[in-house]
Amino acid sequence: METHQTVSDLVRRYFATYESKDRNAIEALLSDDFTFSSPLDDHIDKTVYFKRCWPNSQTIRSFRIEKLFEKGNEAFVRYEGERYDGGKFRCTEFFRIEGNKIKEVEVYFASLLTHANEEKAAKAGIK
Fold first, then answer.
1. Which of 69, 84, 75, 67 is nearest to 19 (CA)?
2. What is the four-CA torsion angle of 68, 72, 74, 79, rounded to 10 degrees?
3. Does position 93 have pLDDT exceeding 60, yes or no?
4. What average pLDDT is seen over the chain?
5. For residues 124 and 127, what is the distance between their CA atoms, to the nearest angstrom?
6. How far is Cα 104 from Cα 97, in angstroms, rounded to an integer?
7. N or C: which end of the chain has fewer CB within 10 A?
8. Are 105 and 95 in contact (CB under 8 A)?
């Protein structure tokens, strides 16, 4: 990656595909040797990712990126997600980019956002 803007753009486009439910668009963003890791998944490949993770896109209404830090071909993003049932959650993800494609995503689960947690965050000045 030559510019930071390109890394940010790929990360934002990745989340936008979940909002639009556009599997073709996300497939175009991922490298052939893409891997995905989370507390539930250990370096699964693209085929397993689409079987196990992509169906979750049907439950996602939106993402709100709170922080996005990048350096070279890597980025960390913290976001709040909202499901169609109104539930909210917050996660952090690490992205590694190679050749204008997303090569690796590592998800670090955080908390489900409840009304009580949102009130605590507001009092602490966190939006």
1. 84
2. 0
3. yes
4. 88
5. 9
6. 7
7. C
8. yes
Tokens of 120: 């605590």
User: What are the structure tokens assigned to 102, written together?
Assistant: 């997303």
Task: Provide the token pair at 93.
Answer: 């993800």
pLDDT in tens, 37-90: 999 999 999 999 999 999 999 999 999 999 999 999 999 999 999 999 999 999
Give the Cα separation of 127 and 122 in Å (integer).
6
pTM score, whole prediction: 0.83
Angle made by CA atoms 42, 113, 27, in degrees to the nearest 5:
40
The residues pairing with 94 across neighbouring beta strands, listed in sequence order, are 76, 106
CB atoms within 10 A of CB 44: 18
DSSP symbols for the chain: ---HHHHHHHHHHHHHHHHHT-HHHHHHHEEEEEEEEETTEEEEEHHHHHHHTGGGGGGEEEEEEEEEEEETTEEEEEEEEEETTS-EEEEEEEEEEETTEEEEEEEEEEEEE-HHHHHHHHHTT--
